Amino acid sequence: RKEVEQDPGPFNVPEGATVAFNCTYSNSASQSFFWYRQDCRKEPKLLMSVYSSGNEDGRFTAQLNRASQYISLLIRDSKLSDSATYLCVVATGFQKLVFGTGTRLLVSP
Amino acid sequence: NAGVTQTPKFRVLKTGQSMTLLCAQDMNHEYMYWYRQDPGMGLRLIHYSVGEGTTAKGEVPDGYNVSRLKKQNFLLGLESAAPSQTSVYFCASTDRPYSNQPQHFGDGTRLSIL
Predict the structure, then answer these.
(1) How far apart are CA A47 and CA A2, in angstroms?
(2) Three-state secondary-structure class, residue B114
(3) Does residue A88 surpass a pLDDT of 80?
């Protein structure tokens, strides 16, 4: 079983749609949680950190459920520029990152 | 605004050749990491360093060696390259362990082993 599991997609949505991604992790000792974005095999870039209380950054909302070991990302009002691969990431000791394989999002006009 | 710089950007090697990938950061970060990314797989940690002169193994360390002689540089070496090491290699750094501070990534080295 992979340590971080994501639906690989692709998710094909029209502009303006709301889309949700889910992720589960197996290591209960995981300390920090993130969503990263990766474009066309370029370097991953931090989208947002994820907190148990839930957090929002503009059109993006992330949620963490430690009891269920579940992380989610909601994107509202999708833009063409949101097309990318979204990586669910957890950090263990010394900030060692464990990456999911990513969920690909394609936003069409 | 250099951040994390990786050299080279691309390289093609023959099986058995050796090479060193260089990662340099100008943010005075303590922690540095090497990852590899293969199709259909997430990034996987090869080796990491928690400070100058220290290194540790990650998830997939076999076939690689690393050195951190200077705080700003983290070198990844392939002593005898194998086709299985064909991958995209990313270096990252951070100064805030045990926190939600992000890692800063270089833009990758695309390595092909023939």
Answers:
(1) 22
(2) coil
(3) yes
Taking any CB pair shorter than 8 Å as contact, residues of chain B touching chain A are 31, 33, 35, 37, 40-45, 48, 50, 56, 58, 88, 90, 92, 94, 96-100, 102-103, 105-108
User: Is the CB of A95 less than 8 angstroms away from the CB of B96?
Assistant: yes
pLDDT in the model for residue B98: 59
Confidence of residue B34 (pLDDT cuts 50, 70, 90): very high
- Tokens 């993130």 correspond to A34
Q: Which residues of A touch B56 (CB under 8 A)?
A: 94
CB distance B45–A98 less than 8 Å? Answer: yes
- Number of A to B CB contacts under 8 A, please give it: 63
Please give the pLDDT value at position B41: 84
- CA dist., res. B17 & res. A104, Å (int): 35
